[in-house]
Amino acid sequence: VHGETKKMTFLFLISCFLLVVVTHQQLIGNHHIGNKIENDLLSQKIDYISALKKLEQNNNKKRSSDSLQQSLLSQDYGFTSDSSAVQITTLKSGLNVLSKEDRSSPTVAVYMWYSVGSHNENSSTNGISHLLEHLLFKGTESRPVQFGRFFNLLGASSNAFTNYDETVYHSSVTSNKLLHVLTLEADRMTNASLTQSDLDSEKTVVNSELGSYENNPLYKLQRLVLNSVYGNESYGLPIGGKMSDVSALTNDQVRAFYKKHYNPKNATLVVVGDFDSVSLLNMVSSVFRSQIAHTSISTYGLNSWSMFSPFSTPFLSNPNLNPLNPSIAGTKKSQQSKGSSIQEPQHKEKPESKYSKKHSSEPSKVSSQVLGNQQVQNPVPPQQ
Question: What angle, rounded to 10 degrees, do the helices at 178-190 and 277-287 form?
Fold first, then answer.
């Protein structure tokens, strides 16, 4: 027994020794790996810092170029091309326009905000804002075609949403299709068809959507909380209404609600992307048929404002100009003349976007369907 005990003790000590040796080797290996990782990270950090310095140098060069552009624009038009600036413009119709140039890609994002949502409803009209949002994709009196088809033809991504205080229609598209999107937004702002058949079919779609929400516990909890706080006040009502509310809405109610809340004074157009500010405001003034009342420049945070005098747009009084000339497939084929095109504004030449030539094209079939024979004139003549 005593001999067996010595043998077991010896084996235990040998096992402990081997364990210490293996652990030590692992620690040495981990140390070497750690050093390698540290060296790799250090070299990457040096490369990263070098890349940042190059980027900063390029940005400084770009800022110098932008400053020269901004100086020239400010002298001629009162506009800025500062990358941190937001152009704030109001048309005489009351439409507000927020725009910001971003030439990083040949695309633009267009958001049309309406100051109307479920807070404008009551127990007898609950759900009407959301239902109307759906109906504005059904077409207009002059373009009685699903607007989704137009956006698909333009290669645009388009959608909308309704909230308590706003209804928003948004789309993203290549910059050479900006005029098309603005034309569609201007058309459905005031010319939505709102037929009884469209209303009936869209009620089914909306009720199906509301039914899916009932399976969401968070949606039910939110409704209970808001209803307990606000009761039957507008903020206590569900944004989309209940299925019984939507089913009870009439076409007269929808038309009256649309006429009251969908107009330039209750809307804000936001455009960000690859465009020239002067050309954009020419488009907006033409498409929405209103002169520019005033414009201002704001940096991020809206801390700095610089007001400019109003611009005159004498061409708008020309009865021969028809900015929204609808002509679509399925109703009346476009008779676009061979020489018809979108005219460039007559202002001093500016450096073009690096994408402008790549994406420029002659008027296409899509253009004729969306724009008809529309031409954009220049409402902002250069100062002499």
Answer: 30
The residue among 256, 279, 293 whose CA lies nearest residue 94 is 293
- Residue corresponding to tokens 């005098």: 309
Residue with tokens 């020794």: 17
Closest CA to 285 of 150, 179, 162, 151: 179
What Rg do the C-alpha atoms of the chain give, in angstroms? 31
Question: What is the chain's mean pLDDT, rounded?
Answer: 75
**Residues 6 or more apart from 231 whose CB is under 8 A from it?**
none
CB atoms within 10 A of CB 238: 19
| pLDDT for 58 beyond 80 | no
Q: Is 133 a catalytic residue?
A: yes
Q: Which of 55, 83, 46, 89 is nearest to 67 (CA)?
A: 83
- The angle subtended at Cα 100 by Cα 99 and Cα 106, nearest 5°, is 110
Task: Choose the catalytic residue: 4, 56, 121, 133.
Answer: 133
Tokens 């004139």 — which residue?
377
State whether residue 108 is helix, strand or coil: strand
Q: What are phi and psi of 172, to 5 degrees?
A: -125, 135
What is the torsional sign of CA 283, 316, 93, 81? positive
Q: Supply φ then ψ for residue 20, to 5 degrees.
A: -65, -40
Query: For 12-38, what is the mean pLDDT?
Result: 67
**What pLDDT is recorded for position 39?**
63
Q: Which two tokens stand for residue 212?
A: 């899916």
Asked whether the predicted pLDDT for residue 153 surpasses 90, the reply is yes
| Residue 295 banded pLDDT, cuts 50, 70, 90 | confident
For residues 127 and 266, what is the distance between their CA atoms, to the nearest angstrom? 19
Q: Are 135 and 198 in contact (CB under 8 A)?
A: yes
Question: Per-residue pLDDT averaged across 115-119, rounded?
Answer: 96
More confident residue, 368 or 210: 210
